[in-house]
Specification:
There is one protein chain. The chain has 311 residues and is of the alpha/beta class. It folds into 2 domains: 236 residues, Alpha-Beta Barrel (TIM Barrel), CATH 3.20.20.70; 59 residues, Orthogonal Bundle (Arc Repressor Mutant, subunit A). Helices cover 34% and strands 20% of the residues. It contains 10 helices and 13 strands. The chain has an 8-stranded mixed beta sheet with strand order 1-2-5-6-7-8-9-10. Helix 2 runs parallel beside helix 3 and helix 6 packs parallel to helix 7. The protein is globular, with a radius of gyration of 19 Å.
């Protein structure tokens, strides 16, 4: 279950996902909006999960099954990908394939020079910046209690100053939490200091970890875009459904389990995935009965999510 997809990405085109954190969610954060669900193992200790050779072989074998080459190989894990102590070696190996490598990180380990050096090997890196305000940071991202807000800020600045690839920031807007004008202005100032190639503003589009999490309304999203843009940031909104053009391998069961462990599958994408793999809803019913996946409704749409308690 190391690689999955490709899945359509609003940032990266067709992205072959790499889940370098096995099993239940392991993270330094427990973000209230996380699409993977609740953090099962809260840690600040980097460790070995898969060997770089395992990751390389899994991606290489996956690519052989695909009809089209993805635009990116993307570390988007069941937790924080920089917890993997061999991340740098894995990136080096994967770059020999000739496809750009991306990493989506919560930025909590950028205080560590080794992590910054490893991430610098990637072609494209996204860092999470949801708040430039410690109480709001702790409310929305719920970091490990031993994480320092100042260390987080220092790490962002240090990485941005040295990284020569494409740097993106991402701010998830949550209604009533971090969508107030004064908070957005402080956040925009921080991001302008980081000077990314692009600053993304997103809203929850998949079932969040906390059911109480809601999207901001259109006026709040527009206000956020105006504030970011007025600060001089190249700002892009990530608001809609990415599309149903999910990659497939011919094994519908494996595709569903691998994708849904990291990326809840919306009903349109599920229908297309089943069609491509010449399967039907009987398989979904079987996976639900086996408690491998669960069906949830969010924002008027059905999603299928991997039941992590069964991994």
């Amino acid at each position: 279950m190391i690689s999955f997809g490709p899945i359509p990405s609003r940032r990266l085109g067709q992205s072959l996902g790499i889940n370098n954190i096995p099993g239940k969610k392991i993270c330094s954060y427990a973000c209230i909006y996380c699409q993977v669900g609740a953090t099962r193992h809260y840690t600040l200790t980097r460790q070995s999960f898969y060997s770089p050779e395992q990751i390389f072989r899994a991606v290489e074998e996956h690519l052989w099954k695909l009809r089209e080459i993805p635009d990116y190989l993307t570390f988007v894990a069941n937790g924080e990908p920089t917890l993997d102590i061999y991340l740098g070696r894995s990136i080096k190996l994967l770059k020999t394939i000739g496809i750009p490598v991306a990493v989506i990180s919560n930025a909590s380990f950028l205080r560590d020079e080794r992590v910054r050096d490893e991430l610098s090997l990637a072609d494209w890196v996204s860092v999470k910046i949801d708040a430039n305000n410690e109480p709001v940071w702790r409310k929305i991202n719920r970091p490990h209690p031993d994480l320092s807000f100042q260390d987080y800020l220092d790490g962002l600045h240090s990485f941005a100053a040295a990284f020569d690839g494409t740097l993106a920031t991402e701010t998830m807007l949550v209604n009533g939490v971090n969508d107030y004008p004064e908070l957005l202005r402080k956040n925009a100032v921080l991001i302008a200091e980081i000077d990314p190639d692009i600053a993304y503003l997103s809203v929850p589009t998949r079932p969040p970890a906390l059911p109480s999490v809601k999207k901001p309304d259109e006026a709040a999203v527009n206000r956020a875009w105006q504030i970011y843009s007025e600060t001089g940031l190249k700002t892009e909104l990530l608001l809609g459904f990415e599309g149903a053009n999910t990659g497939f391998t011919g094994d519908a069961r494996a595709d569903i389990l691998h994708i849904s462990a990291v990326h809840p599958i919306r009903e349109e994408a599920m229908s297309e995935l089943l069609r491509k793999n010449r399967a039907d809803n009987t398989l979904l019913e079987q996976l639900i009965e086996e408690k491998k996946v669960r069906q949830v409704r969010y924002d008027g749409k059905l999603f299928w999510i991997r039941n992590l308690t069964e991994i």
